[in-house]
């Protein structure tokens, strides 16, 4: 990717973070700084490898991140995915809207969508995997951002492609491969 495009991306992005559950305030890591680092790493990595015009534009890219809980994410999962249980992360991508490309071409700001992460599920999964909350949070945020950029994992080839992006972005952030089995 050209240096000016990378510079534009790092300057032209907004991460709106809403803390919906007080458990997030007691984390042993700085949520805002991790979110910014992940945001920059994901968009730079994707722009270097994919043809996503708006990532190298001068437009402000906006993502809304809700740091929530299992109760809220359970409701959303049931309402929008018809799955009656909580999950770790949900993404609602505006790129899936049929008018997104027209909007992206004409707006000074591109709102990519919303990501919601449930603290209880994040904590439980981190404990089960014996990884830090920090590392698991970074992974889930990367996963959510890739969804907002149009990545998916419905088919095996899509899942492998998306996982490789996640692994390589995490590596840039000095975080181990979450899909690797440790004995």
What CATH calls the topology is Collagenase (Catalytic Domain)
**Gap between N and C termini:** 38 Å
What would you call the structural class? Answer: alpha/beta
Tally the helices.
Answer: 7
What low-confidence regions span 5 or more consecutive residues with pLDDT below 50?
Answer: 1-9
Strand order of the largest sheet: 1-2-4-3
Sum up the overall morphology in one term.
globular
Helicity level: 40-55%
Strand content: 15-25%
Largest sheet: 4 strands, mixed
Number of strands: 4
CATH H level: which superfamily? Metalloproteases ("zincins"), catalytic domain
Total number of distinct structural domains: 1
CATH architecture: 3-Layer(aba) Sandwich
- Average pLDDT over all residues: 88
Describe what this molecule looks like in 3D.
Helix 5 packs across helix 6 (133-148). The protein has a 4-stranded mixed sheet with strand order 1-2-4-3, sandwiched between helices. The longest helix is centred in the N-terminal third of the chain and has 19 residues, at 31-49. It is globular. With 183 residues, the chain is an alpha/beta fold. Mean pLDDT is 88; it is low at 1-9. The protein has helices at residues 3-11, 31-49, 70-81, 100-106, 119-129, 133-148, 156-172, and strands spanning 13-19, 60-68, 89-93, 109-118. Helix 2 links the parallel strand 1 and strand 2 (60-68). It contains 7 helices and 4 strands; from the N terminus they run αβαβαβαβααα. The N and C termini lie far apart (38 Å). The chain has a single domain (3-172), classed as 3-Layer(aba) Sandwich (Collagenase (Catalytic Domain)).
